């Protein structure tokens, strides 16, 4: 059971034969291969180290790829039939005939997603509270009366599908077009790992036109890695940014956000940009370029009446 759910197996050497026999009955050829490979390595190690005693064999997940694929099949099963084209494994014959034993139905935009409370409650405190607090108020699925129906509002079926696959497999398909919408929902559903995945997607599309808005997003959702990537990018184009009213407004807002800030106290945004301008400066030409950028930043601060 531990292997099924985590991809990891710790077993006493005296039970390896029994484990292989059970794996064969369950048609777990990958586990059998892993056990045989591990036994061979242990035998070679013990042969080279006389007196060594190995009592436990450990099979560890390799990048979680296999486990992710297996768990993603449960997400495939949860999809309504009319939404399956374009998602998950194709063809869907295997999922159509496979009973995943769902115990909760999430209704999104009139689509029914047959899911498992253990995954949603285990991954999200939001869903844990939702299902525990409102379980008695939910309706029942007509085709399967034993399954309660919980209607989710203010979310599209497309965004919920991204949430669904993340909850089951710890991964989901994101694009620059949907990353912000998924981020907002991930924040509401208390899924910090998914928020970080969204941050990585947004970091790949930084440019002069969106850098300030994405920096604001990073601040709002407390994505520190994305925020740092934004200020690093700002440092590279600071001479263009200082000409923009939007950037000046961002600096002012950041200064006002510092509690009980004095006139000469630091401004986090400015400090971070300065750090990236001056970091890794080694050549004379790089020093000159850094000084020009710092001067442009200082001129902006002077023009808006700020010192730091």
Features:
flat; 57% helix; ABTB1 protein; 6 strands; alpha+beta; ANK repeat; two-stranded antiparallel ribbon; Potassium Channel Kv1.1, Chain A; 308 residues
How would you characterize the overall build of this protein?
- It is a single chain.
- With 308 residues, the chain is an alpha+beta fold.
- The chain has three domains: 2-62; 67-192, Potassium Channel Kv1.1, Chain A, CATH 3.30.710.10; 209-303.
- It contains 16 helices and six strands.
- The chain has a four-stranded mixed sheet with strand order 4-3-6-5. The protein has a two-stranded antiparallel sheet with strand order 1-2.
- Strand 5 (139-140) and strand 6 (148-151) form a beta hairpin.
- It holds the Pfam family BTB.
- Residues 102-176 form the BTB domain.
- InterPro entries: ABTB1, BTB/POZ_dom, SKP1/BTB/POZ_sf.
Instruction: Give me the side-by-side strand order of the main sheet.
Output: 4-3-6-5
The rounded distance between the terminal residues' Cα atoms is 58 Å
The appropriate CATH architecture of the largest domain is 2-Layer Sandwich
Rg on CA atoms, Å: 27 Å
Which of globular, elongated, flat, extended, rod-shaped describes the shape? Answer: flat
The biggest beta sheet reads: 4 strands, mixed
CATH first level of the largest domain = Alpha Beta
* Class from secondary-structure proportions: alpha+beta
CATH homologous superfamily title of the largest domain: Potassium Channel Kv1.1, Chain A
Give the H and E element order. Answer: HEHHEHHEEHHEEHHHHHHHHH
Average pLDDT: 88
Keywords: ANK repeat, Coiled coil, Repeat
GO cellular component, one term: ubiquitin ligase complex
InterPro entries: ABTB1, BTB/POZ_dom, SKP1/BTB/POZ_sf
Pfam family, one: BTB
């Amino acid at each position: 059971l531990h292997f099924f759910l985590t991809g990891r197996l710790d077993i006493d050497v005296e039970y390896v034969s029994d484990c292989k026999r059970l794996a064969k009955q369950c048609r777990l050829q990958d586990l059998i291969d892993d056990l045989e490979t591990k036994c061979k390595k242990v035998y070679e190690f013990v042969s080279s180290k006389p007196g060594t005693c190995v009592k436990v064999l450990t099979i560890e997940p390799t990048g979680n790829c296999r486990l992710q694929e297996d768990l993603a099949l449960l997400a495939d099963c949860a999809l309504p039939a009319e939404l399956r084209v374009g998602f998950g494994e194709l063809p869907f014959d295997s999922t159509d005939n496979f009973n995943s034993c769902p115990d909760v139905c999430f209704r999104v935009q009139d689509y029914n997603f047959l899911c498992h409370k253990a995954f949603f409650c285990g991954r999200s405190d939001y869903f844990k509270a939702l299902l525990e607090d409102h379980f008695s108020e939910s309706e029942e699925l007509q085709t399967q009366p034993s399954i309660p129906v919980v209607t989710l509002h203010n979310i599209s079926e497309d965004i919920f599908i991204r949430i669904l696959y993340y909850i089951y497999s710890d991964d989901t398909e994101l694009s620059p077009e949907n990353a912000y919408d998924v981020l907002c929902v991930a924040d509401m559903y208390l899924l910090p790992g998914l928020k970080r995945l969204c941050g990585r997607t947004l970091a790949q599309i930084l440019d002069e036109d969106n850098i300030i808005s994405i920096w604001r997003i990073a601040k709002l959702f407390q994505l520190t890695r994305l925020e740092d990537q934004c200020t690093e990018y700002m440092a590279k184009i600071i001479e263009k940014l200082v000409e923009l009213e939007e950037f000046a407004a961002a600096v002012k807002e950041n200064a006002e956000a510092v509690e009980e800030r004095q006139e000469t106290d630091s401004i986090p945004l400015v400090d971070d940009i300065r750090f990236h301008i001056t970091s890794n400066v080694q050549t004379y030409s790089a020093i000159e370029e850094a000084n020009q950028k710092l001067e442009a930043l200082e001129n902006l601060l002077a023009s808006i009446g700020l010192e730091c």
